[in-house]
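pls design
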């Protein structure tokens, strides 16, 4: 059985899943989501994703039963027999009045989908991505960038602009002109031998994979910083890579048409990628026991 979803307590075929036209996630983009890979039915750091969802839901006053969400995620993955899957857990306050008022929402919407995921080809990891710098700024003074909000307009505009420029992705600055993140990934650079990533509060979503990379850097004895990063450092960086739970660690080898470092994935990027894969396999194997 495949193409099964969880929606508000029921498991049903994807093409039969329906939500109200008055759902606040649809009407106002008032909702949250978590997305991660499914590896042969297993998950990597699923509890970290659920914890972030729970914290964000408290901020938006969306009542979410995380234990029930976890059961729904695991069962939906079991029902969909994909070797590589893409799980998305989406929550909203549910349907309410036409005039925006979350007090009118009494039945939260919880949706879990698991669809087939086709990983990027190995050649892309060997070649690396090309990126542009998008001029739409993340607001470092707002709490919204720190939430995995279902309002994805800014990121979609960034991706559209990247495609128009013949690039793979776009890097975004914040309102202070500092590096924030990519359209849906965190950014790391290697500058003068130091691994750097924008600090929390720079208008970015603190990613689960970002945190894993920082843990690995510490274990590997790397010099790393969570800090402010100027756009000029992108042009002098020896390595740049993106992280999220789907692409894992993906090198960037061109910025605005110019090569990053040697124009090839660098030593630190490759070392962290290897460490990530080792940790991934170790934790997946432990979960099977």
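designed seq:
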């Amino acid at each position: 059985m495949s193409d099964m979803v969880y929606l508000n307590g029921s498991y049903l075929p994807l093409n039969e899943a329906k939500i109200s036209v008055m759902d606040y996630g649809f009407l106002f983009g008032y909702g949250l989501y978590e997305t991660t890979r499914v590896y042969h039915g297993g998950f990597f750091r699923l509890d970290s994703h659920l914890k972030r969802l729970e914290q964000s839901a408290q901020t938006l006053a969306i009542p979410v039963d995380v234990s029930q969400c976890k059961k729904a995620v695991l069962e939906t993955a079991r029902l969909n027999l994909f070797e590589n899957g893409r799980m998305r857990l989406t929550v909203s306050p549910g349907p309410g009045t036409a005039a925006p008022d979350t007090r009118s929402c009494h039945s939260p919407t919880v949706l879990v989908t698991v669809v087939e995921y086709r990983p990027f080809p190995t050649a892309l990891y060997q070649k690396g991505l090309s990126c542009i710098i998008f001029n739409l700024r993340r607001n470092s003074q707002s709490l919204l960038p720190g939430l995995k909000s279902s309002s994805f307009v800014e990121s979609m505009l960034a991706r559209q602009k990247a495609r128009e420029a013949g690039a793979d992705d776009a890097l975004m600055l914040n309102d202070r002109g500092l590096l924030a993140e990519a359209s849906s990934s965190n950014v790391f650079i290697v500058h003068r031998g130091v691994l750097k990533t924008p600090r929390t509060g720079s208008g970015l979503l603190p990613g689960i994979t970002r945190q894993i990379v920082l843990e690995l850097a510490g274990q590997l004895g790397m010099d790393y910083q969570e800090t402010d990063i100027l756009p000029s450092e992108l042009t002098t960086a020896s390595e740049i890579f993106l992280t999220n739970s789907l692409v894992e660690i993906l090198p960037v080898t061109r910025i605005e048409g110019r090569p990053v470092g040697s124009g090839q994935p660098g030593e630190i990027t490759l070392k962290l990628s290897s460490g990530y894969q080792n940790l991934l396999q170790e934790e997946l194997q432990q979960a099977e026991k």
